[in-house]
Design a protein that fits this description.
Helix content: 40-55%
Radius of gyration: 24 Å
Pfam families: MarR_2, ROK
CATH topology of the largest domain: Nucleotidyltransferase, domain 5
Strand content: 15-25%
CATH class of the largest domain: Alpha Beta
Family: Belongs to the ROK (NagC/XylR) family.
Number of helices: 13
InterPro entries: HTH_MarR-typ, ROK
Number of strands: 13
Mean pLDDT: 89
Distance between the termini: 29 Å
CATH architecture of the largest domain: 2-Layer Sandwich
Largest sheet: 5 strands, mixed
Number of domains: 3
CATH superfamily of the largest domain: ATPase, nucleotide binding domain
Protein name: ROK family transcriptional regulator
Length: 407
């Protein structure tokens, strides 16, 4: 399609609508003059855009600010979060976690259900996700508009219009899968945009926004079945050129290390991945028999009683993690490294080795050492991140919400 000036004008106006709504959502109640000053838009443009948002039911006036002296009192604006809803879906190996939230990110309904999708058959997963979305639709309030569906999936997701899942070995997907298209085909009644994002990126976004200081740049590293992660810059997920930025598990940290399943040698996952750590601690059989949760808990018990084998495994994992953090910070100059998944409860035993690895750099340039902290949100991180992703996407494009009556 050839773009025209009219097309460009519509796109600019949609972008400005989002600019105004995001400011009101983050800083309201606030006056039109404050919105104009913060966004750089003229007061006349802000007045027109606010009128549009009011008719859509997304913004309302919320009192009057009168600071005394001359001039007219300023009418304050606030967002109406319940006017629109989003649906978030988190896919894990054996279940789907689903939530309905408003534009403030407040969860109004949530559900956890097992899925019986067939390994290596993406269509069966799409069936399960579509069924979960249909269940969630019934929980969307009658006076709210469904404006986004967002799905978090393990494996790198391409940064293209198709949002293709490039590979997902844990699900037997060894070739690219257009999961969004598969789900959309099963939901013909859903007219709002559907998005697919990497689950570790979603968790990274949630942990970033849960951070008390909100650093400018943060890297999230999480260990589950392997090691994943995400990069957040200025509050946004950074996915790189192909959608795979922030995947530290297969960062080589030793040129003569063990062979990795990815084809390289000495990758971080070979030393700090749960399978490597638990096997080194003598808990490999328990991991294979009972799964990650019980084995990870047993490791913490062994560490508490200062079991030598467990402590040695954790020391190696911490050294490897510290080496990876040095490489990451040298390349990206980040403020914060957040450790999630099983790395969070393991943090007290990982930290000494991590700090030792960083000590040389700290002595030379102490001001650039990143803060390394455990994650705060636990198992909820991914779902909360999908909600935040969907919320931000909806705030950026308010035109997806129809007028309640024509202006």
């Amino acid at each position: 399609m050839v773009k025209t000036k009219a097309h460009d004008s519509v796109a600019v106006r949609r972008g400005n609508l989002g600019l105004v709504l995001r400011h009101i959502a983050e800083h309201g109640p606030c006056a039109r003059t404050e919105v104009a000053a913060a966004t750089g838009l003229s007061h006349a443009s802000v007045t027109t855009l606010v009128a549009d948002l009011v008719v859509r039911g997304l913004v309302c006036e919320d009192g009057v600010l009168n600071r005394g002296g001359r001039g007219r009192p300023r009418r304050l604006l606030r967002m109406v979060p319940g006017r629109a809803s989003t649906i978030a879906v988190q896919i894990s190996a054996d279940q789907l976690r689903v939530a309905v939230a408003d534009l403030a990110g407040t969860i109004g309904w949530r559900d956890i259900a097992p899925h019986d999708s067939t390994a290596g058959v993406p269509a069966s997963m799409a069936d399960a996700v579509a069924a979960a979305v249909r269940r969630a639709e019934t929980a969307v309030p009658a006076d709210a508009e469904l404006v986004r569906v967002a799905i978090a999936m393990a494996g790198p997701v391409g940064d293209d219009d198709a949002q293709t899942v490039l590979v997902a070995p844990d699900f037997g997907w060894l070739r690219p899968v257009r999961l969004r298209a598969l789900v959309a085909a099963r939901l013909p009644s859903v007219t709002c945009p559907i998005a697919v994002i990497n689950d570790a990126n979603a968790a990274a976004l949630a942990e970033y926004h849960a951070h008390p200081q909100r650093p400018r740049a943060a890297v999230y590293i999480a260990a589950g079945t392997g090691i994943g992660g995400g990069v957040v810059l200025d509050g946004r997920i950074h996915t790189g050129s192909h959608g795979i930025a922030g995947e530290p598990g297969h960062m080589p940290i030793a040129i003569d290390g063990p062979a990795c399943t990815c084809g390289a040698r000495g990758c971080l996952v070979c030393y700090t991945g749960p399978e490597a750590v638990l096997t080194a601690a003598g808990l490999g059989d328990l991991l294979r028999r009972d799964g990650l949760g019980p084995a990870a808990d047993r490791l913490v018990q062994a560490l508490d009683r200062r079991d030598e084998r467990a402590l040695a495994a954790m020391d190696i994992a911490g050294q490897a993690l510290g080496t990876a953090i040095l490489s990451i910070t040298s390349l990206l100059d980040i403020d914060e490294v957040i450790l999630g998944g099983v790395l969070a409860p393991w943090f007290p035993w990982l930290e000494p080795a991590i700090r030792q690895q960083l000590s040389g750099r700290r002595a030379l340039v102490p001001a650039v050492e990143p803060t390394v902290t455990p994650a705060l949100l636990g198992a909820d991180a991914t779902l909360l991140g999908v909600i935040e992703f969907a919320r931000r996407a909806a705030l950026s494009d308010p035109a997806t919400v129809p007028y309640r009556h024509r202006p």
